[in-house]
Fold this protein.
Amino acid sequence: MSRPLASVSGLAGLTVPGSYGAKVGELGVTIAERTGLGIATVAACKGKSEALKAAARKAYGVELPERSIVASGRDILFIGTGPGQWLAVSEKYANEELARELAGRLQGLASVADQSGGRTVIRISGPRARDVLAKGLPIDLDPRVFPSNGAATSTISLMGVQLWQADDTPAYELAIFRSLSGSFWRWLAASAAEFGYEVKPG
Amino acid sequence: MRIKCPYCGERALEEFTYRGDATVKRPRSLESDAAEAWTDYVYFRHNPAGLHREHWYHGAGCHAWLTVTRDTRTHEIVAVEFADKREGT
Amino acid sequence: MTSQSNRLRDGGLIDRAKTVRFSFDGETLTGYQGDTLASALLANGKKLVGRSFKYHRPRGILTAGSEEPNALVELRTGARREPNTRATTIELYDGLEAASQNRWPSLKFDVMAVNQLFAPIFGAGFYYKTFMWPASFWEKVYEPAIRRAAGLGRAASAPDPDHYDKAHAFCDVLVIGSGPAGLATALEAARAGARVILAEEDFRLGGRLLAERYEIDGKPALDWVRAAEEELASLDCRILRRTTVFGVYDGGTYAAIERVNDHVKLPPAHEPRQRLWKIVARQAVVAAGAIERPIVFGDNDRPGIMLAGAVRTYVNRYGVTPGRRAVVFTDNDDAFQTAVDLADHGVEVVAMVDARAMPSVKAKEIAAKAKAPYFANSVVQRVRGRQAVKSVDIAAPNGEVHRIDCDLLAMSGGWNPTLHLTTHLNGKPVWNADLSALVPGALPPGMSVAGASAGQFGLAACLASGRLAGTEAAKACGFKPKRHKAPKAADESTEASPVWQVETSRGKAFVDFQNDVTISDIKLAAREGFRVPEHLKRYTTLGMATDQGKTGNLNGAAVLANVTGRYVGAVGTTTFRPPFTPVAISALAGHHRGPDFRPARLAPSHKWAEEQGAVFVETGPWLRALYYPRAGESPQDSVNREVANVRTQVGVCDVSTLGKIEVQGTDAGVFLDRVYANTFSTLPVGKARYGLMLREDGFVMDDGTTARLAEDRYFMTTTTANAVKVMQHLEFCQQVLWPELDVQLVSVTEQWAQYAVAGPRARDVLQRLVDPGHDISNEAFPYLACGEINVCGGVPARLYRLSFSGELAYEIGVPARYGDALIRAIMMEGAAFGIQPYGTEALGVLRIEKGHPAGGELNGQTTAHDLGFGKLLSAKKDFIGRFMAARPVLADANREKFVGLRPLDREARIRAGAHLVPKDAEATAKNDQGYVTSIAYSPSLGHWLALGMLARGPERHGEVVRAVDPLRGEEVLAEVVPPCFVDPEGERLRV
């Protein structure tokens, strides 16, 4: 029988740590892949929204958001992606574990589907992070408009993306479709080059 | 054109897919005398010059089907609601 | 190298310490930092800069802005060559190379200038009238000849080596133009706290203030500009220089092009040449200024004839005089300021010609100041000099003609507000009789106009209207502006009484310089019935090409009005559409070119497949392995081998690209019953079923298999091509049709790497992958079984016993992050059983041999009955498409139905798309009975075969028909057979 299967990132071979692009003054952006995350979609069952919210409150100490923001629960982020729908992201419940964890706790209240293998998560931070994202993302990330716990489901350069603000440095995390990792990376590298960027190990 | 999605906020036209008249109702009857109702439902649409209630799909965003009231003469959007008003319940 | 003979001793917003070298038509010249190509050419005494479009007449520089119709050059060389670039907007840089256009062999001696001799036949509608017969000559003879003779610049033939960017921006107030009105607007809005974007086409802020010697608050206006710029920088205002807002779209969306690095020889590393901005603004203020009108008189296109305002720009901004002896010809007082500015710089003004019937007091004052003879109620009747103006004949009201030597004629027929952006959403300009100009009419929501764009021509009026617009825009965004001190300035004269044209003049009188449209062309068109501006444009080309009639349109309307006995306002103008000025295709494409033309979705096995030397094909957004050629194999060899290997041993194919949707909830079964024609609520857990999805009109939409993983959890697959469409459809059903159902849908296409393992040895391969404890024997895991298992030591997986090939087959799915490792494991474990990968081409051959319908058959025109799936249509439930599928017309026995086709001549190849006609009938539309949907060479059978749709097909098995391919001129006799060619009983997939 074959040895255990290796997990391979959608960005394998692309994210080589180092400094790239223009080298003028301050480094514009820092880019790092986040690997090993548990990622799952959670969708409320018909008529179970309130019960689901109560269960999430109890299990993770979180108020499931009803709009496009990210809410931090114990060990899990819940990002509002649509009416009665969330994207759950976790470091602690890694990979497929998160979907199992959520499905167990939210049984009968929500449908859970594992997406941990189907997304590539990239963290983009630094003083020019907004300028880089503006080259593809049709969303106003200005702090007066986009809250520090803001999130959005949209497209970047024709590629679907789920984005949430991670901190005010600013840092954003983007979940993109795994199959588009290569195309997305080429867009990101082309867009960030003008400002200078550093790729950090995932 | 920009549509204010009740979930995602205001977004550009490219994120949405148009379907058409939101006022047509799918007939329930499968009896043969329902033929006219079905033909109306599947094929015939009014083409009003003015306010029009229509279905749009926010495929690049929250995947919600929306009912948009739009003035076909000016593209002014008067109202945007979830097509499923029970959403979230 | 010529010295800058026409450079004034001092003055101008140029840096005389920074000499810039450039070349024009191979001649090396110098200018200064701050010059445009046009100002530098004029500084060097270059008046002749191009040849006209149709008549190849010598042309000079007419304007100092983006409205320039004449001075179009090819900028740069090689792959970076840009045709039709306006010399008046090109910032001079060291090493700039430009060449004149549309001349051969040289600018001064142009062979095609003989076209002028044929002017009478080159009139309006010339092409339409002349090249009528024979029709075939149009493409082969006339058009190529005309294209050679009449044309603009040459585009580069090599790919553009530069990078082009796109970006989104959002603001409260977008201010378009940075003249006095725009700056005042931006200041008020930004001071109120609004987020402001100020877009300026030029590389300097200031607009008209750069070209005039105005004062604001008792100081030079440029001091005020500098202060405004500094203040804006301290506020929330993004200033985009070199940026043209070129289009207005619904919802406060504006498109702009920023020429980030057009002003340098090469963009610095990592920087784009241009950036396309998509700006969403809650409020926008158009403060785009005004464009001066020429006067239409004989030979008004001679080099050395220039708009009066442009002359002031060259003198004041660039420290250049376009001539040494100047005549000013105008119908308004404003233009006489040109005489003053020239005289102050020591240029001799030899005549001031005033076309107005009433002499102007103001003009007389100016004439005295400029020491220039004043000719009231007079016109320029004739211009002498071909490649440059030598003298003009001035006709006085008493009939006297004064011939005056000059080398510069500054003309002005008044000003037109630059209102193009106000019309992009169908706004109609309105005629303002006081200004004798069109001014903006109804504006799109959120847009206002200020300054000259709004018809406020005086400086004080511009500042005031800008302040008001800025305040109002800020208020509309919810800000509460405070009052600030108003800048003080005087209003210059804005009186206007245009003469439009000089009827008595001799020579060709040009209305549209760029398209060589003259008064007589418009008169001819009017005689022939083209009396509406839109018609006139198409017939005469007035207002076409790169400048879109910015200087000529209203004059054209005036001529038309004159001929047809109307007033100018009643004639109006054509609709202005985006873009305001030409935009490079590269800028619109941005990142999306070459391999990034659109994003490519790569399957989990992509990297591995590349290592195997696979040839890829685009399938919707995906790149899939088409076949895996070995050394020396032709594509057909490779496909034949891959197919044969599946039939005899075992193959593996990446099917991850199929759409995958989890359908969950207590009503999941009910929901599937309603969206599929067949029934799923009765499907046992652990089983999969083929599903057929109809559209509501009764035709087939998509198919796939759906597996039941748990009581309330199904896993649906769709075709690769329809994945997005099906998801959208299901969500419509879920949210709009049956919101009461408890069903949740989520796409998991990306989550699962899925491989089909097919062939007699498929189970042997899988046995070596699945973890102990999972029994996948035929008894325990029969055809159409499915289950959640573990593979390779605990990796969660899903196994489905499905077969598209007709062989014993499985589809195995693992989380996509294991996809790369799994294909390698499958190949390793399968080696002992002769496993080989197969691509989509072999996949297609296998399914054609089995007669499974796919894209060619699910073409939107076929029904379940047509495809032989009539028995799937459940009669026990409602489902999408049920009622309409039962329409008599769709159940008609005469419809074209699914058949197999076998060529009688086993060497012959049936072509996809061929029409099916009865064996002995003529190949006419009347006898057309169907068409070929799919073809393949079958290695299993050793000949070509086909699938198709044939009228009453199933009743005609055994009959011979002709497959006619009129495109290739081929015909093949084919026997009609059932669509399944291999193992029709389906025994092999159940072993």
